[in-house]
Amino acid sequence: MNIYDFDNTIYDGDSNKDIIKYAFKKYPGLVFKTLRKTKKINKDYKRGLVEFERVKETMLSFIFQIENYPKFINDFVDSHIKKIKPWYMARKTENDVIISASYELWIGVFASRLGVKNVIATRTDAEGKILGRNCKGEEKVRRLYEILPAAQVASAYSDDESDVPLLNIATRAYVIKGNKMSTYFKGYKF
Question: What tens digit of pLDDT does each residue of 86-136 get?
Fold first, then answer.
């Protein structure tokens, strides 16, 4: 199987930032209020008083305050599907696995639009509370083997050093910078 990180790997940009910008155009007051709260809780995170998951929940909490947020998510994906990189579109298969720290809430919709069945991403409940851990670093590998215990990773693709654990379990691994692909090796300097 082939495993792909999402943000800045197969998607041109950071979908978390993009959904905030998209929402700001439609719900500026709601997003502004949420970002003010995020700034405060981020200070607590930097002092070691709260986990990163609380910061992320706060930053994206506006989504769950939008009446009919599933429609909002679908509209966001429809308007941003064009940001899927052409190199990925040329090689994608339905058996790919997309693994992302972004919320499954929209990564799942992107995957569905792309015809990709397997998605592993940060999970939330209906109120926006993160279930478990943020799907990043070692958590991506743990979740992969939790969901697909017999996974044999032929290729893995990522743009970020936090995905080294994922890249290390692949037979072939690649680092993506923009539309450029480089072969990953242990000791690779990101």
Answer: 999 999 998 899 999 999 999 999 999 999 999 999 999 999 999 999 999
User: What is the per-residue pLDDT across 20-66, written as a single tens digit (0 to 9) for each?
Assistant: 999 999 999 999 999 999 999 999 999 999 999 999 999 999 999 99
Phi, psi for residue 125 in degrees, rounded to 5:
-90, -175
Spatial distance between the Cα atoms of 129 and 19, rounded to a whole number of angstroms: 17
Q: What is the phi/psi pair of residue 136, to 5°?
A: -145, 150
Length of the chain: 190
Which residue, chain included where needed, has tokens 């690649």?
174
Q: Are 120 and 97 in contact (CB under 8 A)?
A: yes
Strand pairing report for 97-103 and 118-124? parallel
Question: How remote is the C-alpha of 159 from its chain's centroid?
Answer: 12
Q: What is the three-class DSSP state of 73?
A: helix
Reported pTM: 0.94
Other C-beta atoms lying within 10 Å of the C-beta of residue 62: 25
- Which residue type, as a one-letter code, is found at position 172? R
Q: How many CA atoms lie within 13 A of 85 on its CB side?
A: 23
d(CA 5, CA 25): 27
pLDDT in tens, 145-154: 999 999 999 9
Contact assessment for residue 84 and residue 95, using Cβ atoms and an 8 Å cutoff: no
Question: What are the tokens at 6?
Answer: 């999402």
